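subagent[fold] <- orchestrator: predict structure for attached chain, return tokens only, no commentary.
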Amino acid sequence: MTAPAAPASAVPSAEASSAASAGSNRRHLAVVLGVAILALAADVVAAWLSGSLALVADAAHRVTDVVGVSIAFGAATIAARPATHNRSFGYARAEVIAACVNAGLLVALGVFIGYEAITRLLAPETPEPGPMLVAAVIGLIGSGTAAWILRSEHSGFAARGAFLDVLGDAIGSLAAIGAAVLVVLTRWAYADSIASLAVVCLVVPRAVLLLRDAITVLMEATPPGLSLPAVRECILRVPGVIGVHDLHAWQITAGLPMLTAHVIAAEDADYHQILQQVDRALEDDFDLAHSTIQVEHPSRPTEPEAHA
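subagent[fold] -> orchestrator:
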């Protein structure tokens, strides 16, 4: 004997919230994309005039920035689409896929720029500091503007990837400014290559973390910070509950965790009351607004679980 599963009313509200967030991200990403294209144009011209590797690194990063923000914009557009009968959770996971692509591009770019910087250290070249400084200042203004626009929109995967892009741009512009100043003051030929390596060291680890988080979601791992043993103990504390099995938790995308569980109730328990109390406990203690709970009679046979 089983009681009805938790009401499905949480599904539309969770998806509506995710779609609304994606719509907000999309508007901001459109502005950031325009800023990124303008900054890229300035970097390309200045890198060609100065011969600066730091500006080449910054321009190359801005190419991935434009591509990455375009991917994020497209993903946010897709994620804002409503759920359908064929896709009951909507398209929210498009942001996770976009984050994987974006982070992968950043890591690949970092490896390339790191290789070029080491090559230049072995055979240093002194760039022209004038165009380098002008482009770096323009880039810093553009990146700062984009980061300010996205300052409160980096909880979702698409916006987080875009925020990482513009943050990398800002760091690259600061490094290029520092290198240009050193070249002007000292004519130190290594400044440009060291600035490029600094950008790589600061941006690549963040990209790796983003890639790790996105893959964690795609692998349907337990959401970070959520302990299934703690969830089990919470459910077992509900009066009338004598067992829990088939306990699983995962994320559709950032901020949209899901949980399912089979709860064994005592024979004389009120199954509907247990269902309400378990739902309330999960939402209050773990912020799990979307859970599907099946309440079962103790006579129903269950198979042993390996993990849950």
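orchestrator: received. Logging for downstream: The chain has a mean pLDDT of 79. Helices lie at 10-50, 53-79, 94-122, 129-149, 157-186, 191-218, 228-236, 271-286.
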